[in-house]
Amino acid sequence: MPDARTHDLITVASGAVMAPVSYGYLSETMQRGHADAVMLTLWLVGSHLVSGILFSPDLDLDSKIDNRWGVFYWIWRPYMRIIPHRHFFSHSLIFSPLLRLAYFYLVVTLLLFFWVWVMAQLGLVVPDYHMQLYQYMRAWLSANPEVSVAVLFGFCTGSAAHTIADWSVTNGQRFLRIFGIRITRSYRGHDGSIHQRRVRW
Fold first, then answer.
1. What residue ranges are annotated as transmembrane (predicted)?
2. Total domains present in the chain
3. Which of 27, 70, 118, 195 is the most exposed place for a label (fewest CB within 10 A)?
4. Mean pLDDT estimate for the chain
């Protein structure tokens, strides 16, 4: 499979291709003004890059991808335990990126809830941040439907760029086998890790 650097290059290159296509579609087909077309394109391409680089399908592995989260790498440890590598749940075109987004939102909400609970046990009154986050997200999504669609679309395409690259390599190997050319399939070095379901907590 392509390594992390190759996947990053694919993500950036596909984002660069999407930018003029998105702007042209929005400004000509959808008849959006220049400012609106630029803004929606930036949201789309930005979410495409964030999805491919930080929310990569390979977050189901202990690899370079979760290391990019720095001190917050542990957020993805339960995800690695639950999601099988290169499974529908991690490498599908639409479901898996939305699953990672929902997982991240759930983790942040639980952490905020836990913080509020700890403060209450210490006799300190703090705002219910978890509820405020929910209300803010709901209000923002309602107030910005077009931006929300652009973000979700870009988030899915960023993940899809990774998944399609993996599929291409796998199917390419199968195609070569038809002609008697066999490539030894090795996961060593993929995304900077040895492909084992061992997760370091």
1. 6-26, 38-56, 102-126, 147-165
2. 1
3. 70
4. 87
Enclosing domain of residue 10: 4-192
Crossing angle of the two packed helices 95-121 and 129-143, in degrees rounded to 10? 140
Q: Tokens at residue 59, please?
A: 């977050």
- Band of residue 168 on the pLDDT scale cut at 50, 70, 90: confident
152: in domain: yes
68 found inside a domain:
yes
Going 21 to 18 to 16 to 31, the CA torsion angle's sign is positive
Whether residue 201 is contained in a domain is answered as: no
Each residue of 90-135: pLDDT tens digit?
999 999 999 999 999 999 999 999 999 999 999 998 899 999 999 9
Phi first, then psi: give them for residue 82, nearest 5 degrees.
Answer: -85, -40
200 is a domain residue: no
pLDDT digits (tens, 9 = 90+) for 175-189: 445 555 555 544 444
